[in-house]
Amino acid sequence: MNETNIPTDEVLTLEELAAYLKVSETTAYTLVRGGEIPGRKVGREWRFLKARVTHWLMQAGTEEDMSDSTSTTGFVQRDQLGGEFKQEGGQEYVALWLPITREEKAAQIEKATRDGVNVSELVADYLRSWAKA
């Protein structure tokens, strides 16, 4: 524990984070995915230090945050049609739902790694063949 009596070593899962913040798991995941809540992926799962989440909560709504509220660079946002996008490094990135299972995705990533090619190229080829089917 530190001087504010916040445990510094407690680790939360996504489900525990949602319960701690008293929000749905979907809302918690959206905040995490948008980079708003500090956390780490460990394998396929998200983990959060409770002390860092508490600190994040305590910082919310400060003068510094309010003055920077127009900056959305790097954060996932929704457009007028409900699609997800983010702007980063002068580029706009659009999220797409792909007709691919997690197993197929893993196979594509493994193949890209094995063949030393860009995953995006493999996914594009996969989508072309899917569209022709």
Share in β-strands: 15-25%
**Poorly predicted sequence stretches spanning 5 or more consecutive residues:** 63-70
| E-strand count | 6
Task: Note the run of SSEs as H and E.
Answer: EHHEEHHEEEHH
Q: What structural class should be given to the helix and strand makeup?
A: alpha+beta
Helix content: 40-55%
Strand order of the largest sheet: 1-3-2
Q: What is the CA-based Rg, rounded?
A: 19 Å
Mean pLDDT metric = 78
Q: N- to C-terminal separation? A: 59 Å
Helical segment count: 6
Q: How does the overall form come out from the CA principal axes?
A: globular
Mind describing the biggest β-sheet? 3 strands, antiparallel
Keywords summarizing the entry:
45% helix, three-stranded antiparallel beta sheet, alpha+beta, 133 residues, globular, 16% strand
Question: Which SSEs are present, and which pair or pack?
Answer:
Layout: E1 11-12, H1 14-21, H2 25-33, E2 40-42, E3 45-49, H3 50-59, H4 63-67, E4 77-78, E5 84-88, E6 91-94, H5 102-115, H6 119-132
Antiparallel strand pairs: 1-3, 2-3, 4-5, 5-6
Helix pairs in contact: 1-2
What this model shows, in words?
With 133 residues, the protein is an alpha+beta fold. Helices cover 45% and strands 16% of the residues. The chain has six helices and six strands. The protein has helices at 14-21, 25-33, 50-59, 63-67, 102-115, 119-132, and strands at 11-12, 40-42, 45-49, 77-78, 84-88, 91-94. The strands form two sheets. The protein has a three-stranded antiparallel sheet with strand order 1-3-2. It has a three-stranded antiparallel sheet with strand order 4-5-6, with no helix packed on it. The radius of gyration is 19 Å and the shape is globular. The chain starts with 10 loop residues before the first strand and ends with a helix. Residues 63-70 have low confidence and may be disordered.
